[in-house]
């Protein structure tokens, strides 16, 4: 019954994924967010009388420190203990979504800077000179052809690309 409820609730949600009828993944946060993480919940045979298996071992979570993963799992297990005996997968996912900022407050944000910004030439006091973008240069012939096609405003005349059907 909980399986059907999860399928109907998360239908079309790109963050939810059903790995098998007893195993589910949910991504907390946007895919480009450096503080996003993935929770995997698996149901044992005696679920919901026993706690589900919660895992954060997915490759998506490799940037998260193990201390923060353990902290998230500990907080989720407290929620599991409070809901033992009832269907709790949806509750766990929503609890994680609601507390994402609290869970990830100590996670450092890793930003990647491009190599061109980190390399400087000359002395550090002199700012780098920006090169001007070159515009495409047209030859005299190309300019003449362009001018012949356009009117005095630089616009092509109406119907310049129409096909003559009668020919």
UniProtKB/TrEMBL annotation:
<feature type="region of interest" description="Disordered">
    <location>
        <begin position="115"/>
        <end position="156"/>
    </location>
</feature>
<dbReference type="Pfam" id="PF05773">
    <property type="entry name" value="RWD"/>
</dbReference>
<dbReference type="InterPro" id="IPR042770">
    <property type="entry name" value="RWDD4"/>
</dbReference>
<feature type="compositionally biased region" description="Basic and acidic residues">
    <location>
        <begin position="128"/>
        <end position="138"/>
    </location>
</feature>
<dbReference type="InterPro" id="IPR016135">
    <property type="entry name" value="UBQ-conjugating_enzyme/RWD"/>
</dbReference>
<dbReference type="InterPro" id="IPR006575">
    <property type="entry name" value="RWD_dom"/>
</dbReference>
<feature type="compositionally biased region" description="Basic and acidic residues">
    <location>
        <begin position="145"/>
        <end position="156"/>
    </location>
</feature>
<feature type="domain" description="RWD">
    <location>
        <begin position="1"/>
        <end position="103"/>
    </location>
</feature>
<protein>
    <submittedName>
        <fullName>RWD domain containing 4</fullName>
    </submittedName>
</protein>
């Amino acid at each position: 019954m909980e399986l059907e409820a999860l399928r109907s609730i998360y239908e079309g949600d790109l963050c939810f994924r059903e790995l098998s009828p007893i195993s589910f993944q949910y991504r907390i946060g946007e895919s480009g967010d450096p503080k996003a993480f993935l929770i995997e919940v698996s149901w044992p045979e005696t679920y919901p009388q026993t706690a589900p298996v919660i895992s954060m071992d997915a490759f998506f979570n490799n940037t998260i420190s193990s201390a923060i993963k353990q902290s998230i799992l500990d907080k989720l297990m407290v929620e599991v203990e409070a809901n033992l005996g009832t269907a709790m997968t949806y509750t766990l996912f929503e609890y994680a979504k609601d507390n994402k900022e609290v869970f990830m407050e100590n996670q450092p944000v890793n930003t990647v800077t491009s190599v061109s910004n980190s390399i400087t030439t000359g002395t550090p006091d002199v700012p780098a000179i920006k090169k001007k973008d070159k515009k495409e240069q047209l030859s005299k012939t190309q300019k003449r052809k362009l001018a012949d096609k356009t009117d005095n405003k630089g616009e092509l005349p109406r119907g310049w690309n129409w096909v003559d059907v009668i020919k």
